[in-house]
Amino acid sequence: MRCLTLLTLAVLGTAGAHANPASENFTYEADRFADIQVLRYQVPGFEQLSLQQKKLAYYLTQAGLAGRDIFWDQKYRHNLVIRKTLEAVLQSYKGERSGAEWDAFVVYAKQVFFANGIHHHYASNKILPKFPEPYLAKLLAQSDAKLLPLEGKSVAAFARELTPILFDPTIAAKTTNLDDGVDHVAASANNFYRDVTAEEVDAFYKDLAQKSGNPRLSYGLNSQLAKIDGRIVERVWKIGGMYGPAIERIVGWLEKAATVAETETQRRSIEHLIRHYRTGDIAEFDEHCIAWVSDTTPTIDFVNGFIETYVDAVGKKGSFESVVSMRDVEATKRIAAISDQAQWFEDNSPIQSGHKKANVTGISAKVITVIGEVGDAAPSTPIGINLPNAEWIREQHGSKSVSLGNIIEAYNVVSSKSPATEEFAASPEIAARLKKWGALASDLHTDMHEVIGHASGQINPGVAPVDQTLKNYAGTLEEARADLVALYFSLDPKLVEIGVMPSLDVGKAEYDKYITNGLLTQLFRVQPGHNLEEAHMRNRQLVVAWAFEKGKADNVIERFTRDGKTYFRVNDYEKLRVLFGQLLREIQRIKSEGDFEAGKNLVENYGVKVDQTLLAEVHRRYAPLNIAPFMGFIQPKLVPVKKDGDIVDVKIEYPTDFLGQMLEYGREHSFLPVIN
Questions:
Q1: Nearest-CA neighbor of 604 among 473, 468, 474, 515?
Q2: 585-619: per-residue pLDDT in tens?
Q3: What does the alpha-carbon distance between residue 104 and residue 102 come to, in Å, rounded to a whole number?
Q4: What is the number of H-type helices and E-type strands within the chain?
Q5: Taking a C-beta distance cutoff of 8 angstroms, is the pair 99, 150 a contact?
Q6: How many CB atoms are closer than 10 A to CB 258?
């Protein structure tokens, strides 16, 4: 489970952020195109790592890069063909590399690279080129045919075949379709399923769980479900199976990593992951997760595998991702202070007593310094992660919660320059409070969302896993639940008592920011005429719209207009906290009892539909601010230094060219055929 970039970090602004002293001469901004701003981040402390730790980080980073192709293919079956076509044109086109059409092509290529495919990384909608259709044929005709993925076709025939895939908005319109009233499997363009329906998927995995005798396994996490010759089969992602060539490379690097593991438990977790990749056995992945979650001492840590299920509309298939990191010892003190009180937070939660954990098990929390990210974690990255996702492992063995410190720092440094705080804050007093406490409020929200949010509550005995009970609404409801835990305790004196915030003004800043974001500023990320698609955006609107409606009688949240502009202001912070607690109680009940209809009603009534008039206003107000609604990152590059064939050091470089890095990845880390 992950906390994606809060819009307030990237758009509303969190002035008051304190940059690492070593960052003062570092240029964070790298590129700007379409609705994207590309940033860079530093890895302070990498040079001080031991050689063993540097080797471990290098091997794990390479293991992640080896799987990059997988996520591209998972998002859409034609993505690898499209990417290799873009790479070929960018590297070999002999025509004029200037003018409106070429510039539009380059922007489109960057958008596709940023999204890991032709569907927007956040909104899920298909990205349509802004250059004319005939220009594609011209580009291909004047590029090196040897570099194009022609698969035996002529260049002209290939262009004709590719044109509707890129330009027709009705073909593969959404990589993940969560609309009510549609078949969420058949209507989604992702490559997790081929020619099957949501009903067939549900029946297949229910039958598999019943026959297996072990219903707690995450069936379907690492496979494509396809109908071949009228029969439904699983194509498992493993060595010798689907994605085998890339997985072989992943395993090769993991085997090297195991030789320099920092602890015996870390080595054992890597070996279980290797066996999972070799066999496709989910039980081996669970054993990896159990060893991984119990291993809390190493400096170097990692996530690698088929992890998050947000891209799958029915929440079964794991997208490939890799995150390699090192512990930020000093910053971890704040998040550890929260995790140390996890049982207190559980005991004092407003949820029903029967839905609380009597013994909160094994929550470990830390702030990490990211070294490298790939797949579903890049270029757009989470700011917090809580894993593993298997509910039974979380209940019996605990979870790891991390806040991505250097990523948040980069966001904060850039966002501190944003003029959006003054534009959307309901009053000068609120703007001043956001400038003073916004960054800390965001940090604490992320910490609590991951540490005590995702780790809280329990499912009633006999209730099936949430992907079976809450289905396509599971992701939104889980993120709303974790947000509500963070919001409820943001205004609790306990946080002042344990020393993580100086006063309740920080909590008020979080309420101000969250309300404005949920009802107003996050609409900047939505195109006119569209509703909310992404689970985190739906969750935020659900939480705030519900509280706004339920608090109307007491005017808890006030909507008003000043100078023709709409604002939202919290009039009673304590009553708003009570409302957050009530909604948290209900969503936990929905999860604990598996109440699909109640969950559906919450999401559809409060989290999906957008006020189009308000959306248009938000876009008008942002236009003169020149702010990109989305941000992501160029990754640092680890370079081994060798002597007589042995690695004697690993250096870290900070590339500045986003497109250059994408082309380099295509040359050096592409191992899958274009058709899987």
A1: 473
A2: 999 999 999 999 999 999 999 999 999 999 999 99
A3: 5
A4: 26, 16
A5: no
A6: 18
